[in-house]
Amino acid sequence: MTCAAPKNIAGSPTVARSGLARERAKVAHAALADCHLCAHHCGVNRLVGPAGLCHAGAEAHFFLAQTEVTDELELIPTFAVALSGCDLRCDFCITGTESWNARAGTRFSAAGMAVQAKAALANGAKTIMVLGGEPTIHLPAALEFVSLLPETAKLIWKTNAYGAEPARELLAGMFDVWLADYKFGSDDCAQRLAKVPNYTRVVRENLLWANAHSELIVRHLLMPGHLDCCWKPVAEWLAENLSGGKVNLRSGFWPGWKSARHPELRSPVSDDESRRAGQLARDLGLNLIP
C-alpha cells in the first residue's frame, strides 16, 4: 500500500506527498508559537525554547535510527526513527529517559535521516516508521522528513494517539499506516500511571479518525492487574466501534523505569492473566495479529 496523493489542508487540487509534506512542515513549525499539537493544549510558545508538558522546543532530537524486527510481522523489517520526548509520563515506559527528555540523543536532521532511510529500503527494509517518545510533538521535523522520502515508501506513524485536531489535519494523507497505542481503558488508570487527563475520549476520537484516513493497527500492552479495568473496556470498545480492525495484544510487560511506584506493576503479566486476555479477545471476535 502506498499513500494516495491527498488534498492539501486548503482543499486545493492534489499534489505529491513530498510536496504536501513540505508545505505542512512550515505550517506545523509556525504552530509551535501557540502549540496545540497534542490534547494537553498547552498553548505555549515553543519557538523561544522548551516549554509545555512535553518540555520540547522547536528543535527535534532522536535516540534511535535503525532497522528493527520486533514490531508487527506485516511491517518488518522496518527502519525505525525514534524522536525524543513525549506528552505522556507513563511510569512503565521502556524508553523512559529518552521519552521523558525531549533533548535526549542527537539533533535530528531530516536530510541526513532521509539518506539513512533510503539506504535501509535499498537493503531490504519494507517500511519506514516514525515513533518516539511521541512523534506528534515534533510534527514539523517528522513532516520535513516525509517530504524527503520516496513517494512509494510505505510509512508508519507510531503514536500514543493523544494528538489533537490541528495535528490530525497536518497528518492527513502523510502515513500509510497508523500504529496506535490504546493503553488504558480507564481514565483513572491513565491519570495515575501516565499523568494524562481525558484519555479515553481523546484516544477514541483519534482512533476513529485514523481508521477513516489510513490503515490502522491498534496495540494494547496488557499490564498486570489491569485486565478488567483496562483491557476489557478497550477490547469491548474495539469490538463495537472498529469491528474487524487489526489489534495487537501484547503481554510482554516489563516492570522497568518507574513501575515500582505502583504495587501491581512490580512483576510481569501472569500466565492466567495472559490466557484470560486472549480468551476475551477471541470471545469478542477481535482480529488479533502478531
Which helices and strands occur, and which strands form pairs?
Elements: H1 17-31, E1 61-68, E2 78-83, H2 96-100, E3 106-107, H3 110-122, E4 127-131, H4 139-147, E5 154-159, H5 165-171, E6 177-181, H6 187-194, H7 199-213, E7 215-221, H8 227-241, E8 246-250, H9 271-283, E9 287-288
Helix pairs in contact: 1-4, 3-4, 8-9
CATH architecture: Alpha-Beta Barrel
> What is the CATH homology-level superfamily?
Aldolase class I
Order of helices and strands: HEEHEHEHEHEHHEHEHE
Helix content: 25-40%
* Overall form: globular
Give the spatial strand order of the biggest sheet: 3-1-2-4-5-6-7-8-9
CATH topology: TIM Barrel
Distance from first to last alpha carbon: 19 Å
Name of the CATH first level: Alpha Beta
Radius of gyration: 18 Å
Low-confidence stretches: 1-13
Count of helices?
9
User: Based on helices, strands and strand pairing, what is the structural class?
Assistant: alpha/beta
What's the main sheet like?
A: 9 strands, mixed
Number of E-type strands: 9
| β-strand amount | 15-25%
Q: How many structural units, i.e. domains?
A: 1
Average pLDDT rating: 95
Quaternary structure of the protein: single chain
